[in-house]
Design goal:
- This protein has about 270 residues and is α/β, with parallel strands linked by helices.
- It contains eight helices and 13 strands.
- The longest helix has 18 residues.
- The C terminus is likely disordered.
């Protein structure tokens, strides 16, 4: 499926990434399975299988990545330390940041553990020459000469990102909820769909307009929507064909936000 300069393919990402020329991608931004036994592909593996699968897809992703490229990997709390070690010790990537994506609600009820309210996002780079557009995402309304994280153009972006997950009635998800004549929900959309503003922030921080973003696990293609909105090219893979109609619908209806300003981008990510 080709959408302008962007491509999304329904195929296994391991074989798909083999077709990408080495060193041709500027940024990898992806939300791989957390291995939480959800009803999505490759999410019900034992630990050894999960780690082997993680190594396999990271091999393809880093091969495609340019020498000055970066990679964002969203993780579940349980396995993120292991994924960190794999990226740093086995692939010799440079740890730039661990970002906390914080949200105020969870889809799971709890009794004997605390309510989950965050996901870690690992940011690694291939070299010290990675792109980092901090000034594009500073908050110009938050300035204090006593805060070392500030400059005169605004407060630096912190490593905790408060961005709400799209619930069933959020505009990004609601359009995919379909009911039959009896009022029964027959289509719910992707169960782990992430907010567009979350991926926009990653993409704006670590790439430039016109560059190429890769997502090996595009699901409902939120990364693709964010890439197109911010003027980037996109390559995505999704192994499960049931998400193809949603991917087609979202990417075909998305266009670049050419009039977008830095302040608007920053505020939008916090408000959603």
């Amino acid at each position: 499926m080709k959408f302008g300069d962007s491509v999304a393919s329904i195929e296994d990402c391991i074989s798909g990434m083999d077709k990408i020329p080495a060193g041709s991608v500027d940024l990898v931004a992806t939300d791989p399975p957390y291995n939480l036994q959800k009803t999505i592909a490759n999410d019900d593996l034992n630990e050894h299988e999960f780690f082997d699968f993680t190594r396999l897809w990271i091999t393809g992703a880093t091969r495609a990545l340019k020498k000055d490229g970066s990679i964002y990997v969203m993780c579940g709390v349980k396995y993120h330390p292991y994924v960190h070690v794999i990226l740093e010790k086995e692939f010799d990537l440079i740890h730039v940041d661990t970002i906390i994506w914080a949200y105020s609600h969870s889809v799971h009820g709890v009794k004997r553990v605390l309510q989950s309210s965050y996901d870690p996002i690992l940011l690694f780079a291939k070299s010290k020459d990675y792109t980092f557009n901090m000034d594009d995402l500073r908050d110009p309304f938050a300035f204090s000469r006593f805060d070392k994280g500030n400059s005169r153009i605004g407060k630096a972006l912190p490593d905790v990102w408060y961005i709400e997950a799209p619930r069933w009635n959020h505009p990004e998800r609601h359009e995919f909820y379909k009911k039959n004549g009896r009022g029964d929900i027959v289509e719910k959309g992707h169960p782990t769909q992430k907010p567009v503003s979350l991926f926009k922030r990653m993409i704006q921080l670590s790439s430039n307009p016109g560059e190429t973003v890769l997502d090996p696990f595009c699901g409902s293609c939120t990364a693709g929507v964010a890439a197109i909105k911010t003027g980037r090219k996109f390559i995505g893979f999704e192994v499960d064909p049931q998400w193809e109609p949603i991917i087609n619908r979202r990417l075909s209806s998305t266009s670049s936000e050419k009039s977008s300003k830095k302040l608007t981008d920053f505020v939008e990510a916090d408000d959603e």
